[in-house]
Specification:
Elements: E1 5-10, E2 22-29, H1 32-41, H2 43-46, E3 50-53, E4 59-60, E5 65-72, E6 77-82, E7 85-91, H3 96-105, E8 130-131, E9 134-135, E10 140-147, E11 152-157, H4 158-161, E12 178-188, H5 198-206, H6 214-228, E13 236-240, E14 246-248, H7 249-258, E15 266-269, E16 273-276, H8 278-284, E17 291-292, E18 295-298, E19 301-307, H9 313-331, E20 340-341
Bound molecules: uridine-diphosphate-2(N-acetylglucosaminyl) butyric acid.
The site of uridine-diphosphate-2(N-acetylglucosaminyl) butyric acid has 18 residues, from strand 13, helix 8 and strand 19.
C-alpha cells in the first residue's frame, strides 16, 4: 500500500479551534499495517518531529508544525456479548460520538453520559475524557498501541494507563511515544443510570422523564452540551480550556473567609480536597463572554475559550495567559491548561 504524503498542509479544518497552521508534512493512516509501514519504510519521515492528530479537538496551534503530522483515521467498531457484559472495540479514528450512539442504539450502557464529546476514540484515553459524572476510565478495558521507539504493537491495560482526572500515562510520562490504534471498553446490558450531575436530573424533570433509558440520558446530555457549549463547526473551540483546580479543603476555607460574599462552586475530592469550578473562578474575574479581537471566552461557559472567526492560536494563548494571571491574582490559584499547546 502506498502512503500519500502532503507538503505544507493546512491544518485549519483539522483543529476544532479553527486556527490557521501548516504542517511541513502530513499523512493519513487508515490501518495498523499502514502505521507499521510508515515506521519501517519511511525512516527519514519519521525521524523528524512528529505529531499525532485525531479529531484535533484538544490542541491549540500557536505556530506551524515543522515536522510530520500523522492523522490516525483507523475505522471500525465491533462487539461481543457474554451474558450481561458487552465488549466493544473501536478503531482509534472512530468519532467518539458515533461510538456513543452505536452503543446507545443497541442498549449497551456505560458511555451515554459522554455523548457529544468532540474528538476520536483514540484520543479518549489520552486525556481520560469525562463528563456528567462519568470518565472513560470507568469503562476502559485496554488499548492497542504502536510504540514509536521500539517499532512494535502492544496492549496497555487500565492500570498501565495510569488514568486520573483528564490525565494518563500517554499524556504525561510517555508523551509522544505511543500511538493508540484501537480501544476496548466493557459495557453492560443492565444499565446503571447515572444522573448524579445536577443539570441532568433537572433536565430530565423538565421533560417529565421519571425512569430514563440510556437513550434519554444521551439525548439530555447532548441537549445540555448544545445549550452550554459552542458548536466547533461554527465557533472554534476545544471544550474546557483549563482543568478544574483541586485544592485542599483548608484552602477553600481560607478563600471563603477572605471572600464571605462569594458562593464558591466546588465538589469534594476524597475527604480533604475539593475541585473548584474553574469556569466560576474565571467568571468572577470578569472574563465571561469577553473578547479581545476574535479570541474570547464563551458567553454561557467561561471555561471555554473560543475563536469567533479569525483569531490566531497565539491570540487565544495570550488570552488564556491573561486569564491565568487574573485568577492567580484574585484567588491565588494557578489554572492549568487542559488543552495541548503547540
Ligand atoms: N460555572 C460558572 N460560570 C461559568 C461556567 C461554570 O459559574 O462560566 C459554574 C456552573 O454554574 C456550575 C459549575 O461552574 O455550577 C460547573 O460548570 P459545568 O457544569 O459547566 O462543568 P465544568 O466543571 O465547567 C466539567 C468538564 C466538562 C464537562 C462538564 C460536565 C472539566 C475541565 N470540564 O466542566 O468537560 O462537560 O464538567 O461534566 O473538567 C472538557 O473537558 O472539554 C469538558 C467540556
Amino acid at each position: 500500500m502506498k502512503l500519500s504524503f502532503k507538503e505544507h498542509f493546512p491544518l485549519k479544518t483539522y483543529n476544532t479551534f479553527g486556527v490557521e497552521a501548516f504542517a511541513k508534512e502530513y499523512v493519513e493512516v487508515h490501518s495498523e499495517e499502514a502505521l507499521a509501514q510508515l515506521f519501517t519504510e519511511y525512516r527519514a519521515m519519521t525521524q523528524q518531529p512528529m505529531l499525532v492528530l485525531g479529531g484535533g479537538s484538544n490542541i491549540l496551534f500557536t505556530t506551524d508544525f515543522d515536522g510530520l503530522v500523522i492523522r490516525i483515521a483507523i475505522p471500525g467498531i465491533r462487539h461481543s456479548l457474554s451474558q450481561n457484559t458487552v465488549t466493544v472495540t473501536a478503531g482509534a479514528g472512530v468519532v467518539w460520538n458515533e461510538l456513543v450512539w452505536y452503543c446507545v442504539d443497541r442498549e449497551f450502557a456505560g458511555i451515554e453520559n459522554l455523548a457529544l464529546i468532540p474528538g476520536t476514540v483514540g484520543a479518549a484515553p489520552i486525556q481520560n475524557i469525562g463528563a456528567y459524572g462519568v470518565e472513560q476510565k470507568d469503562v476502559f478495558v485496554n488499548c492497542r498501541v504502536f510504540d514509536t521507539h521500539r517499532g512494535e504493537f502492544s496492549t496497555f491495560d487500565k492500570e498501565a494507563c495510569r488514568f486520573s482526572y483528564r490525565e494518563s500515562y500517554f499524556k504525561r510520562e510517555a508523551k509522544g511515544r505511543y500511538i493508540i490504534t484501537e480501544v476496548t471498553f466493557q459495557l453492560s446490558l443492565t444499565p446503571s443510570i447515572n444522573t448524579s450531575y445536577g443539570t441532568i436530573s433537572a433536565e430530565l424533570a423538565k421533560r417529565g422523564i421519571a425512569k430514563p433509558t440510556i437513550k434519554d440520558i444521551a439525548t439530555v446530555v447532548s441537549a445540555i452540551r448544545t445549550e452550554k457549549l459552542p458548536d466547533p463547526s461554527t465557533i472554534g473551540n476545544s471544550g474546557s480550556f483549563f482543568k478544574n483546580p483541586i485544592v485542599p479543603v483548608s484552602y477553600l476555607e481560607q478563600l471563603q473567609s477572605t471572600f464571605p460574599d462569594k458562593d464558591f462552586v466546588f465538589y469534594p475530592v476524597g475527604t480533604d480536597h475539593v475541585k473548584l469550578a474553574a469556569g466560576w473562578l474565571i467568571e468572577q474575574c470578569g472574563w465571561k463572554g469577553k473578547r479581545i479581537g476574535d479570541a474570547g471566552t464563551w458567553k454561557n461557559q467561561a471555561l471555554v475559550l473560543v475563536n469567533h472567526k479569525d483569531a490566531s492560536g497565539s491570540a487565544i494563548y495570550d488570552l488564556s495567559q491573561r486569564i491565568i494571571n487574573d485568577v492567580k491574582a484574585q484567588f491565588g490559584i494557578t489554572l492549568e491548561r487542559e488543552v495541548n499547546i503547540l
